[in-house]
Amino acid sequence: MNVYAALWLVLSWIPSAFAEEVELVHYAYANYLGSGIYRTTGQNASLINLPFSYEVAREEKLTYGLRLPLSLGFFDFSLSDLPGLEFPDEVGTFTFTPGIAASYQYSDNLVIESYLDFGYARNLSTNRNVSVHSAGLSSLYYFNVANYDAIWASRVYYAAYNGNGFDANDSYAAIQMGAELGLPYKYQLLGYTYQPRLFVTSFWYFSEVDFLSHKQFANVDDSNNITLSNSFEAGVTMKFDQVLGYSWLGIERLGISYRFSEQFSAFRLLFSFPI
């Protein structure tokens, strides 16, 4: 079984049935929310996020690269659909936000990262699209706890969208902090060696994030919109010793996590560093 066949088996556990003209978990933010089965006010949406990237150059402590994140969205998904294997027969949304990234090795333990994205997102059921932009700054601190290798990550980022040819816009900014712990074991999957890793992370939003569409997108009552001021997440990943697939069109991890807040929850599939 090759790598992409194995990946398809993982993704095939994201079946969905579509609800007409309803947008949940605004697709413009898909590349920043990550893959997942998102649930709000009794309705569901699912996103598959593939965080492709490519390293362009390395100069001493500074590394430059391209970000090529791609997300596909499916509407009205329920966990109860899993046993029936009712696979989606069409894509509901498409989001592509290419950008540039840079990282600086400040010390042996500390790396500073930044990125700037500008891209496009489209709802294929309403034939409307938006322009998306985002920027962020992060620090990654590497340390050891006994036989366990760990990372403490701190991030601040901003994302926004504007309607193309119609009146719609929104933005949010957030701080994220979390820790990841690598277990001192190695295993194999389909001939690829991986390390199990555990993580926890928290998000604090400067402005509440609207996870339902505005009235321009769907006939929904604004009073039903779900907003977030904070959320929490925990999960497990398999970190592979080598990229699965091509260097720029591959994945470095497989994992699953659960994100939640007072009115919002999400099971997430992970294909990269989760914090």
Automatic annotation (TrEMBL):
The keyword Signal applies. Keywords: Signal. Residues 1-19 form the signal peptide. This is Porin. It comes from Litorilituus sediminis.
